[in-house]
């Protein structure tokens, strides 16, 4: 199971404009992560299920 | 000798070896050009006249003694400023690294020195080879010598500018998502992004361990090959040898080149001038006896997503701690991009990497049908030098990232000029180990294209109109 990742607080001297941009960058990355997760799920197929871990 | 700048690497070396020209004369020629053009083009972050001339005198002394000379004897080169040169600052074009002076050469620089090359200076680049052009770094951004109001490509921007403007004969760049190919294409020179393991990354500031490559850039394919042969730890066999024809001589009768039909609606995003140059490349190969086939690149959107997730996670792993500790010492583009990468969890990073071999195998299947695949380097001709959207590379297709993520060698060469008079470059990809074959094809294509850097070099620096930084 994929867990959400929470990066640390931003440095105090981050500007408002940078905070907005940073959030936009993270949103774009989340969309890419969703594509990757879906591709991995498709590659595993319905019969394998589980979290894909191996010993 | 009147026109030192017209000599290729081999011609220059032969002239020095035969003592028709001294290495000192050649080095002074390039240093004088740097002095004349640096203010307008910002190609370099550091030039050491005395060191360059001392290296040149050592080469001349070897020639005078009749000692065997290296393959790059007396050839002035620049080194991207994220690559270590002993006792010279490696700034990575970042305030955070201005005081960093390495005690030893990077492996690639040591190999250049063993070939008797002249390390003339450090080439300008984007901050840590990631993020730019930027206007808040310790150095102004490099400018395109074809027109200083235009972007020269990046992140190995100074390398492309210095070669095109005649401020060195070749340069060493790095390529994480097109950083050798983009400035090569925008400036009208040749660049190779090799496969993994062929050129050492020791002594090079890391960005992304999965995606980083070191490679040569030069005025033409033969010069680029000469540099590659000197710095490579291994050079693969020429795949075109035995395939029929003589591609290096422009006979492509043994070549099957794939022109890509790509997914993700890339065709509709391709600028008409870029599309025309792409078509022309195919026609030239066909006119030389080669076979052209349409191939469909699989899952380009997924390749872009997986590569970007892996790269951004690795950028954050390499740099986020330092960015947080010294936030004000980084440019706003680099620090924002780096901290965005922190949002990627380890599970998702591993998921992206797990797709790599599967995607590679899907692309590798195309090489059963064609020997090589041609692609544009950029969707558009070079644009004006302005501040960029920090995350444009996540929202728009970056076709260059394919070769990095899937570890395929790719060579870029100029294929024409845009309506604004700026170069348009194309790239040719091959399977792993095909670097020598790519040089063969590029050399052959150059005979048909006959791209000319003279107009760019003739531009007088005082006529270059400067934009406010």
Automatic annotation (TrEMBL), chain A:
Domain of life: Bacteria
Annotated region described as Disordered, given as residue ranges: 1-21
Protein name, UniProt field: Uncharacterized protein
Organism in which the protein naturally occurs: Shinella pollutisoli
TrEMBL record, chain B:
InterPro entries per the UniProt record, alphabetical: Amidase (IPR000120), Amidase_CS (IPR020556), Amidase_dom (IPR023631), AS_sf (IPR036928)
SUPFAM superfamilies with a match to the protein in the record: Amidase signature (AS) enzymes
Domain of life: Bacteria
Domain Amidase: from-to ranges: 25-438
Function: Hydrolyzes indole-3-acetamide (IAM) into indole-3-acetic acid (IAA).
Record's protein name: Indoleacetamide hydrolase
Source organism (scientific name): Shinella pollutisoli
